[in-house]
Amino acid sequence: MARILLLMPTSSMRIAVVTALRDSGQVPVDPPADWEEPGQLVSVVDRTQPDVVVISAEDGLDQACERCEGLVGGEHTRFIPTIVLVPEMPEGADVIRVLAAGARDLISTREPLTLLAARIDNMARLGYLRRTFRLHHDALVARNQELDRIFETVTSGLAIADREGRIVRMNARGREILGSQMESFVLGLRTPSDETLSGETQLGGGPVVIVASVANAMDHPLNRAAVQGESVHGQRVDLGSKLKGDERVLTVDAEPLWGETGQRIGGLAVFRDETEAIRLHELLRDRSLELAMRTEEMEAFVFTAAHDMKSPLWTIRRYTTMLKEDHGEAIGTDGVHLLDRMHVNAVRLGRLVEDLVNVVKVGKMELFIEPMPLERPIRDALRNLDGAVRECGAVVDVPDDLPTIHADPDRMVDLFENLLGNAIKYRKLDEPCRIRVRANETIEGVHVYIEDDGIGILADHFERIFGLFQRLHTRDQIEGSGLGLAIVQRIVDRHGGRIWVESTVGQGSTFHVVLPDEPPLA
After folding, report:
1. What residues are paired with 199 via a beta bridge?
2. Residue-wise DSSP of 74-86
3. Vertex 171, ends 168 and 176: CA angle to 5°?
4. Are 311 and 396 within one domain?
5. What is the three-state SS of 175-241?
6. Do 268 and 290 lie in a common domain?
7. Least confident of 392-401, 417-426, 473-482
8. Going by DSSP bridges, is the β-strand pair 157-162/207-212 parallel, antiparallel, or unpaired?
9. Do both 8 and 42 map to the same domain?
10. Domain around 71
11. Would you state the torsion angle of the CA atoms of residues 325, 326, 328, 329, taken in this order, to the nearest 10 degrees?
């Protein structure tokens, strides 16, 4: 129902108008008591929010015109239609003056009340439509402003093309990404015809001349979306050239835009500048290839050198033993001591050479993957460590119900021999050594836990211990080459698994190994 505000003093005319409006089904709105105070009229109408304002001219046309002009000057009240009620219809000049002041109509109170009420009602309905339109318009403007803010603040480049493939809008980030390559990007657009088309469009930062070329245009992602109606995901667009130093590589996603009735009205492209990321990727790839080549060369050298050292080391051990046995009395106690030290160091160097060979071999040898009970390689590893286990009186708890793993049997023996040997090696010398093996099946594969109650590892060394020649203690404290866990890491990597350690100094360590159910092909 329309809202009718009567700005009329209490009089017989007001009573007659109110009665006529009520008889026609309308309910006029009574104005606040302060409506006649100077300067309050616009405020009163703003608070009341009517669809039409009826102003009485009982006190003269000058006052009625003044009130009309006041309403027309208001920010919101200027949209509300105004009717002036006059006792008698004035002359033509006065009618023009009233209408010029902002009134939409003049109605004489001498007209039949039913006609008067009908004219006010019609104007009120018009006012209601105008008010409703204004509310929707304001809401639409606010929504568009919000969309504009979103469009301009998106961190990716955005471009909109019409159904003929002409860009009609681009956000600030898009203009920033393209920079000097704006023309190169735009030149890829075309229309359905085979004719070259030129024109102007607004890209947010000013008019830009667009030339839609047919050359290679059909594959332009925005053209595919706007003109051909395709969805495009992750298409690469190369702009500029490396020689000129203005190369740009974009990754573009594009979707067609559809109207309310289902017709294609254009397309939207979202693009990102991948130039730096691709440059870094290519640099990383080149460095990785270079590193792989150097690593392969180094491993080949280590493998060859280690093999070449085996024979001389064996000769040194043999000759020191022969000298000690055959000429021990002749060379004396000091000489025998020196021979013993030479022999021990030759044995130690031989172990190091063997470990180096194993490190290289693990990275190159073919894997023979097969299903097996997890306890099998663990039991085999413990048999190889039998002497060390007996010497320290270690207690190793290995359940019989461990899950099945898919791995190379020999490499698994090497893995567990190193991990279990490590637990024995880094035990507390004044306490019995206890080692516990557990395992469970997870989404990633079989998760193996090897827990010990040894001396533990500092958190700063959790990653370092898996590197080559990484020792946390001197050889005088604990024997070893520092290659055991590096071999373990390579075995796990070859099987596509993961290994890490959790430890507390003085309480022990837990090594975690995850072996996937489907290791990568060797």
Report:
1. 210
2. STTGGGS-EEEEE
3. 120
4. no
5. HHHHHHHHHHHHCCCCCCCCCCEEEEEECCCCEEEEEECCCCHHHCHHHHHHCCCCCEEEEEEEECC
6. no
7. 473-482
8. unpaired
9. yes
10. 4-149
11. 130
Q: Is 455 a member of any domain?
A: yes
Per the DSSP assignment, residues forming a β-bridge with 212 are 197
Residues 42 and 169 in one domain: no
User: pLDDT at position 482, please?
Assistant: 63
Mean pLDDT across 400-426: 90
**Tokens representing residue 34 in the block:** 């302060």
Answer yes or no: is 224 within a domain. yes
Convert 329-358 to b/e letters by CB count within 10 Å (16 or more is b). Answer: eeeeeeebeebeebbeebeebbebbebbbb
- CATH code for the domain of 183: 3.30.450.20
Q: Are residues 209 and 324 both part of a single domain? A: no
Q: Count CB atoms within 10 A of the CB of residue 236.
A: 11
pLDDT of residue 73: 78
Any idea which of 33-47, 127-141, 206-220, 236-250 has the lowest mean pLDDT? 206-220
Q: Does a structural domain hold residue 364?
A: no
Q: Is 94 exposed, middle or buried (0-12, 13-18, 19+ CB in 10 A)?
A: middle
DSSP string, 265-287: EEEEEEEEE-HHHHHHHHHHHHH
For position 448, which CATH number holds? 3.30.565.10
Residues 160, 171: Cα–Cα separation, whole Å: 9
Helical H segments across 395-438, by residue range: 409-425
pTM above 0.70, yes or no: no
